[in-house]
Amino acid sequence: MNIFSVKPDNVQLETSADDNKACRGDEISINCSAVAVPSVTSYQLFENDIAILDSSGMWTRNLTTEGTFIYKCVANNSLGTGESASVAVTVNGNFVSFLLGASG
């Protein structure tokens, strides 16, 4: 029998933002996953080094402010923690399209 235990490893953070770019007013999904034995007991999401949410590793963020936001995820189990690489999401102003009609 092969029994082993590991703290969270291979912690991955992914966003639904296209090329990690979005517009103010958009809503994005952020997902975190990790390999761990025993299983991960909790995930924390950090935005610009401030812990903002704890959950099962799936979040939705409403982007209300322009700028660049650095996200990372920390996974926890009884043996310790593991951290994802940082992901920068750039939020630009509202997208507005204009339809120009020709007058004749």
Task: Please write out the topology.
Blueprint lengths: L5 E10 L5 E3 L3 E11 L4 E6 L2 E6 L2 E5 L4 E11 L2 E4 L3 E6 L12
Parallel strand pairs: 2-9
Antiparallel strand pairs: 1-3, 3-6, 4-5, 4-7, 7-8, 7-9
How would you characterize this protein structure?
About 5% of the residues have low confidence. The strands form two sheets. Strands 2, 4, 5, 7, 8 and 9 form a six-stranded mixed sheet that branches. With 104 residues, the chain is mostly beta strands. The chain has one domain: Immunoglobulins (Immunoglobulin-like), CATH 2.60.40. The chain is built from no helices and nine strands.
In short:
The chain is mainly β and 104 residues long. The chain has no helices and nine strands.
Number of strands: 9
Secondary-structure element series: EEEEEEEEE
Radius of gyration: 18 Å
Mean pLDDT: 89
Helix share of residues? Answer: under 10%
Number of domains: 1
Overall outline: elongated
Q: Tell me the name of the CATH class.
A: Mainly Beta
Low-confidence stretches: 97-101
| Multimerization state | single chain
The CATH homologous superfamily corresponds to Immunoglobulins
Distance between the termini: 83 Å
Main structural class: mainly beta
Quote the CATH topology: Immunoglobulin-like
SS summary, helix count:
0
Strand content: over 45%
- What's the architecture, going by CATH? Sandwich
